[in-house]
Amino acid sequence: MSVEDNKGVNRKVHWQSHQSSNAEMPENTLAAILDAWELGGIPEVDIRQTMDGVIIGMHDETPKRTTSAPAADQDRLISECTFEQVQTWDAGVKFSAKYRGERVPSLEEVLVILTRHPERELYLDYKQVDLEKLAELVQQYGVGKQIIFCHKDHENCKAIKRLAPEIRTMLWIPDGETARSFEAARASGFEALDIIQLHLKDAEGDEGWRYKLGKDYLQHVQEQLTEAGLELEVLPFYFDQSSMFRLLDIGIRRFAVDEPRVFVATLNDYDFDKASFI
């Protein structure tokens, strides 16, 4: 729910801790998940399934980049590994010795925490899982209203909505596909969608607006989504105070960020009372 003051200014900002960047914490670990919640954000877990059917947090198809998996396992597909194997890998030490001992979490571990904190939310970025199994697991723990399912394929968003209508869905649209994918979603009546995320890549040169997607276009998209009862989320891959303030000025109130602490510090400096809404 939005929180508006008597001037109609929406001061509530939702933000996703984008896990695949490895910027401030070892991605897809309980340490990163808990840290995002403690900062006031919503963590993201990239979900894959092991050979024995356990849904885990892992961005890549293989463990090579993010874990201490031995040479024999480094290039093995997660779908070819058992959960017992996965649990022998250290998921924190490659990021920093400070996080030595962090393991690849099962989704079930994270959902157990959600049951104890009904005020918390969680993004699940679909990589490779059985959607029926995912829906059953979420419903088993009764946390569907706390889940935001994310994928770039609209059909997967429709599928999870059929299986678990209480789960919110977010269609993320990568740079280069914005107009086509957004128009296709709009033509469907934004079927089964709750949020649309647009990726903001830097433009070449500096003409007073940092991103390839123009301010007017973002405002247009936001107006259409608001009218349809949806939310706009943006993922600015890079931002400074000026560019973030301009996004906030437009009225955008949902973000995905690679550097949560930098984002929170920037947000704390934003004066909602002087928002220009240009």
TrEMBL record:
PROSITE patterns, per the entry: GP_PDE (PS51704)
Leader sequence residues: none
Region entry Disordered, spans: 1-22
SUPFAM superfamilies: PLC-like phosphodiesterases
Domain GP-PDE: 13-267
Protein name from the UniProt record: Glycerophosphoryl diester phosphodiesterase
Organism the protein comes from: Paenibacillus eucommiae
